């Protein structure tokens, strides 16, 4: 199977429409239809059920889409990494979302520079859940991020674990408590890890600073890792430890087939720095 045919198939599968897929690919509709028929003939399976109004994946088509996307990402990543490897002053790219590094980023960069196999490291700032996509597409060599994350195509080491805190309006009845429980907040254990990210989406705000502004106004409460909360002091927001919340895990991730000594040095530096800050084990999260 040629990669071009696979790209054509993925475009149709994602668009569920041959006309939109052809426009996305920049080719004529009849040429796209012909390419898909040829691919089906080559594989000996029907990939789509077509009607005058809809295009739906068959079971073989769904399987091909599941495995085809990572294959195309791997090809694109290989090309990007090859181009980057030719740069005269190449740096490792570390993907990080601003203020979600456990407060360790500066120390990690300094420690990594002192490693025997060190390579220069540049920080690539990214958004929520962007980290693993950047790793898979070759736009980053490593990523520092909190759970949850998409594990496909990556390896990780846990760098640090830390407690979670509730972000409450300063006039909330529980704002002065020494600790709270999830039930006090009306939050389930299953909801904890994605709470802030989900709140940002549901409240139609763009980032954590805006979310905390709504917390201060009494519009919501949310849950954050303790180190993230420390970066966002607000007079109108109270941060209260949550007694029964699972700890937040900060991980460093890299592409699963990476053999880069520079990335390995960065991973060693990250775990060593976390341990030096007393953040390396689940027991530390209760302190």
Q: How is this structure best described in words?
A:
With 287 residues, this protein is an alpha+beta fold. The chain folds into three domains: 3-84, Orthogonal Bundle (Arc Repressor Mutant, subunit A); 91-161 and 248-286, 3-Layer(aba) Sandwich (D-Maltodextrin-Binding Protein, domain 2), CATH 3.40.190; 164-241, 3-Layer(aba) Sandwich (D-Maltodextrin-Binding Protein, domain 2), CATH 3.40.190. The protein is built from eleven helices and ten strands. The protein has helices at 3-15, 18-25, 29-43, 59-85, 105-113, 131-136, 182-185, 195-202, 208-216, 226-230, 261-276; strands at residues 48-50, 55-57, 92-96, 121-125, 142-146, 154-162, 164-169, 222-225, 237-241, 248-255. It has a five-stranded mixed sheet. Helix 1 crosses helix 2 (18-25). The longest helix is centred in the first third of the chain and has 27 residues, at 59-85. The protein is globular and about 65 Å long. The protein starts with a helix and ends in an 11-residue tail after the last helix. The relative contact order is 0.14. The model has no long low-confidence stretch (mean pLDDT 89).
């Amino acid at each position: 199977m040629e990669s071009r045919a696979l790209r054509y198939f993925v475009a149709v599968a994602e668009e569920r429409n041959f006309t939109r897929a052809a426009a996305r690919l920049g080719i004529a509709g009849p040429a796209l239809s012909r390419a898909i028929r040829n691919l089906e003939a080559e594989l000996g399976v029907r990939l789509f059920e077509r009607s005058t109004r809809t295009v739906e994946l068959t079971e073989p088509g769904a399987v091909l889409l599941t495995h085809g996307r990572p294959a195309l990402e791997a090809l694109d990543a290989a090309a990007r990494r090859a181009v980057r490897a030719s740069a005269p002053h190449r740096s490792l790219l570390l993907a990080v979302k601003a203020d979600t590094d456990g407060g360790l980023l500066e120390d990690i960069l300094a420690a990594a520079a002192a490693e025997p196999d060190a390579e220069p490291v540049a920080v690539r700032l990214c958004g929520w859940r962007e980290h693993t996509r950047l790793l898979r597409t070759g736009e980053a060599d490593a990523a520092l991020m909190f759970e949850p994350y998409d594990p496909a195509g990556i390896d990780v080491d846990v760098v640090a674990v830390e407690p979670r805190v509730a972000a409450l309006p300063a006039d909330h009845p529980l704002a002065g408590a020494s600790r709270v429980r999830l039930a006090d907040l009306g939050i389930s254990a299953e909801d904890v890890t994605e709470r802030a990210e989900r709140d940002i989406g549901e409240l139609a705000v763009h980032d954590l600073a805006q979310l905390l502004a709504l917390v201060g106004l009494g519009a919501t409460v949310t849950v954050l890792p303790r180190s993230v909360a420390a970066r966002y002091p607000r007079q109108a927001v109270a941060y209260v430890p949550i007694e029964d919340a699972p700890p937040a895990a900060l991980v460093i991730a890299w592409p699963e087939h990476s053999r880069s000594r520079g990335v390995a040095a960065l991973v060693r530096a990250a775990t060593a720095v976390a341990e030096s800050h007393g953040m390396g084990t689940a027991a530390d999260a209760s302190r």
